[in-house]
Amino acid sequence: MLVSTTLVTLVMLLIWQTNIFLALSFPVIFGTIELVYMSAVLSKITEGGWLPLAFASFFLLVMYTWNYGSVLKYRSEVRDKISMGLMLELGSTLGTVRVPGIGLVYNELVQGVPSILGQFLLTLPAIHSTLIFVCIKYVPVPVVPQEERFLFRRVCPRDYHMFRCVARYGYKDVRKEDHHSFEQLLLDSLVKFLKLEARDIALESDLNRPDMDSASVRSQDSGPSADTSEDLRTPLMQDQRLTEPEEELPSSVIPAEEDLDPSVEYELCAIKEAVDSGFTYLLGDADVRARKNSWFVKKLMINYFYAFLRRNCRRGAAVLRVPHMNIIEVGMTYMV
User: By the 8 A CB rule, do 322 and 179 touch?
Assistant: First the structure.
């Protein structure tokens, strides 16, 4: 109860941005009640008061163990991520055969190439023609609208067909969509990202032309084109953006379908062909182990307690209700 009161107070201050006096009155009132209850429990230890303390200690140990192991696992992923130099050395084929299809590689990194990809390249004889590294993050807003659910960024040069996708959910969002809806939303956001990227490149080339007069430059700089692309890469932090009317871009700023760069058209066609071949979820079956020179307490918590919690937690793919035939798992061992 004391932990919950403390966390709610932090939420009131940092997320809800409640008045500081009202936020501090919450722990004063409820904290007083809980301290009175705790003093009554402490005064009855020998008569059964130890039972609530035992339950509280157990749940506190579970939460601490899960947080401790998750932090060590994430640090291990950041430390072992694949360098960009190695990716460029492998080439656009990634040292294997690229077959039609879209591979969704789930990981926890928001930047860089996760080490799980290297394990797939060593294990599988072929890899999908389009790879999307999917990372699910929860942002401190109540609800994230579907049209702003995904943030995309290109990984490696264009001929690699590799993208980073951050799927954002608010603390009130409930992930009820099935895998078909998730895939469709992700695909729509990817196509939108490619068109915005082509538009930004076209604008940059137009601005760099020496024959463009200053009036046209001012007219394009005054438009919201730069803000539009940046909004897709920045977490949604304010709800008033949903109520503000979007300014309409001039028709000369947004390239039409037939005015797209040939390389972009080829990439869109390649993605359409990959979609026709289907989506595959590439997951890592992680095994987190403590190093041999670690302390006994750390080995006990990581090798037994944290491993037990991971075996019994619900997977992200289970929430999406993905058919087993669309899932490929590869074993990963993280030494923390």
Answer: yes
Residue 96 structural domain: 84-237+251-279
pTM comes to 0.75
Q: For residues 156-163, give the mean pLDDT.
A: 89
Least confident of 181-190, 227-236, 327-336: 227-236
Burial class (CB in 10 A: 0-12, 13-18, 19+), 290: buried
Same domain for 166 and 198? yes
Both tokens of residue 4? 């919950």
In-domain check, residue 329: no
How many CB atoms within 10 Å of residue 35? Answer: 12
Mean pLDDT of the chain: 80
Same domain, 138 and 53: no
At position 114, the amino acid (one-letter code) is P
**What is the CA angle 280-286-290, rounded to 5?**
165
